[in-house]
Amino acid sequence: MSNILIETKNLTKRYGTFTAVDGLNLAVRAGEIYGFLGPNGSGKTTTIRMLTGLLDATEGEAFICGYNIASQASQAKSLLAYVPDQPKVYGKLSAREFLALIGALYRIPKEIAQERAEQLLDLFGLSERADDLLEGYSHGMRQKVVIAAALLHRPRVILLDEPTVGLDPASARLLKDVLQQMAAQGAAVFVSTHILEIAERMCRRVGILKNGRLIAEGSTDELRQLTGSQGESLEDIFLELTGTSETLEIIKSFEEGDV
Ligand SMILES: Nc1ncnc2c1ncn2[C@@H]1O[C@H](COP(=O)(O)OP(=O)(O)OP(=O)(O)O)[C@@H](O)[C@H]1O
Ligand SMILES: [Mg+2]
Questions:
Q1: Which of 12, 51, 91, 100 gets the most CB atoms within 10 Å of its CB?
Q2: pTM over 0.90
Q3: pLDDT in tens, 103-118
Q4: Residue 185 exposed, middle or buried by CB count within 10 Å (0-12, 13-18, 19+)
Q5: CATH superfamily of 4-87+155-218
Q6: Which letter does DSSP use for residue 151 in this model?
Q7: Cα(135) to centroid of ligand 2, in Å?
Q8: What is the mean pLDDT of residues 203-213?
Q9: Nearest to 70, CA basis, from 84, 83, 51
Q10: Distance 86 CA to ligand 2 centre (A)
């Protein structure tokens, strides 16, 4: 049996004549944390939304645990969790009520859902505020509730879109530990981020997207070999591969008064 839990085949999204995601072929295995990098507007969110089934592909296919996200949506969706870039919650519910609702949506037996919810609230330091309405939560607190909700049904695949934005250092570290634990237990983790240090420390493999195309993929060591640059940071490699290092050169010479 294949242990590929996330797969895309020629996945493409067009808006009119503009191609946001261009023939993407990806495979992420059980136990793997895959970092999805790329400049603003390169197609990361669009890809993740297609993987969740929230956005239809124009061409190509996406599979979650072997289930086609378009034609076998309910099986695929029951196995995945999605943490969007903007934490959306029902403001008129408390954190506890929100988690109970998510538990019911995923048909988790009530007692089990309750027990897991309490564990997650405790883990994310939200227990004391768990009966407060979510509309009164800070951005980071909401983000933690959304992450807790994503973990509630023990997904085999978790897709996270810039999850550390708004999290304090301790919470970002906690998230990293939780994701590593999930991967160790056989889940596939797919995470977009602009924080290259996170990608470097957490991800076994990274893919770099530019203009909707995967321009490089591999471990950071492999990417180093690709750019022929021993000892360079992932940031240097990223800037080199995405062509943004030229922009930085221009800025530098501008600052130095050469332009
Ligand atoms: N509904 C839409 N209609 C038209 N164009 C869109 C739509 N949604 C996204 N795009 C375009 O698709 C491209 C990719 O957007 P996307 O949000 O996937 O980028 P991203 O890599 O997530 O960027 P960021 O790092 O800023 O989050 C952008 O050029 C964007 O303007
Ligand atoms: Mg995005």
A1: 51
A2: yes
A3: 999 999 999 999 999 9
A4: exposed
A5: P-loop containing nucleotide triphosphate hydrolases (3.40.50.300)
A6: H
A7: 24
A8: 94
A9: 51
A10: 10
